Amino acid sequence: MKRTFHVLFFALLATTVFAQGKAKYVFYFIGDGMGVNQVNGTEMYLADAEENRIGVKSLQFTQFPVINMASTFSATNAVTDSSAAGTALATGEKTYNGAIGLDDRKQRLTSVAEKAKRSGKKVGVTTSVSVDHATPAAFYAHQPDRSMYYEIALDLPKANFDFYAGGGFLKPNTTYDKQEAPGIFPIFEEAGYTIARGYNDFKAKSSSAKKMILIQEEGAPAGVRSLSYAIDRNESDLTLSQITESAISFLTKNNSKGFFLMVEGGMIDWSCHDNDAATTFREVVDMDNAIKIAYEFYKKHPKETLIVVTADHETGGLGLGKGKYEMNLKALKYQKQSTGILSSHITALRKQKGHRTTWEEIKELLSRTMGFWTELPVKWEHEKILRDCYEASFSKKANLEMEKSLYTVSEPLAAKAKEALNDMAGVGWVSGGHSAGYAPVYAIGAGSELFKGKMNNTDIPKRIAEAGGYK
């Protein structure tokens, strides 16, 4: 009898400890395109640019006690796209490149966010790009093609999550086959969602809203595609930190059961597709600022909160060093705008003055936006490349060919200026696409021990579900 009592006592104790160890609050941060070198490069850049020293200045998330790596291949290729990787991170299953929430036989998969919702948690899905983009879509939608933006948006109210946020929606009234269709916003409102346009509108509406969709104000500089890059941001722009803060506020309102929140730093990927190192490192810092908000929440609820940070894949094949045993990452701090905004300035100058634009006017623009000549010495070979590009693109007989990346179309002179600055800093890129590099993984809090040991990306949502006790 005594032995039976002890067995029952320890079984009950183990059950109680396990129940207490469940993560009541889960933050899942995904840096799209954020490979190991994007993180390491950012920390080295911060040390050089802000503290004038060789080394690293640690980001918040790199100080988490669990640090790991995960492979990223899809079911159909060693190099994944964001939809297959997003689906893997959301559902724990590999799929074909292009799929959203479906397996490689186009069968519906269940995401960790859907499991959290079924377990009684409030759920938020947020991003710095459009809400219907590949990574956020993988958590709530089920479509055979990532470009089915209208159809993906129609899946949003079906998931019935509590909070969504991002830049906006890419195809609010046009189907995949380019047919005009009923607008999505009335459909959202009919499903009980309050639409907030901008941070101030959210604060005005959030107390009375039951479910919320937060997007940018109409007329925001970046439009519906995304938030503005951190390097280009105006004071009135919606930020990923504000989105994270808003999500926490909304998901904790009248809620004793906890929440699951996915936050994507989607524009790390975009700047890597552009091979724009200065913009990339600032985007990693911007996501870290959002993580700091989650970390402050964790410090108030350390036994009940789990924070996981990872990436869907690496973008660009970023190299730190170009053959010489030296770098000068401090040079990147003089870039004041992204390649796309620099391109728009060059286009404006072209429209204003055409072939009468002088080399001195171009030098003044590049000095003001990139630090060339004033802050950074410009070697003869770099100046020759820039001057030759100017003469080719601003002459009377110029046959202008714009430089294209996945998300940006740039003036050739803007692209050459970016390349020159990368070279001055000692930063190299393999391509404008994705690579098969490892994705870093960081974790802290309740259940973080589950993330030790090398993983596949499909392991991450499974372990989150285990830590959260999702059915």
What can you see in these coordinates?
This protein has 471 residues and is an alpha/beta fold. The chain has 2 domains: 24-319 and 432-468, Alkaline Phosphatase, subunit A (3-Layer(aba) Sandwich), CATH 3.40.720.10; 334-425, no CATH class. It has 16 helices and 16 strands. The strands form 4 sheets. It has a 10-stranded mixed β-sheet, sandwiched between helices. It has a two-stranded antiparallel ribbon with strand order 9-14. Strands 10-13 form a two-stranded antiparallel ribbon. It is globular and about 65 Å long. The two termini are 35 Å apart. The model is unreliable at 4-21 (pLDDT under 50).
Topology:
Blueprint: H1 2-20, E1 25-31, H2 36-51, E2 66-71, H3 82-91, H4 112-118, E3 122-127, H5 134-140, H6 149-159, E4 163-165, H7 184-190, E5 193-197, H8 199-205, E6 211-215, H9 240-252, E7 259-265, H10 267-273, H11 277-300, E8 305-310, E9 314-315, E10 319-320, H12 339-353, H13 359-370, H14 380-394, E11 403-404, E12 409-410, H15 412-425, E13 427-428, E14 434-435, E15 439-445, E16 455-456, H16 459-468
Parallel strand pairs: 1-7, 1-8, 2-16, 3-4, 3-7, 4-6, 5-6
Antiparallel strand pairs: 2-15, 8-15, 9-14, 10-13, 11-12
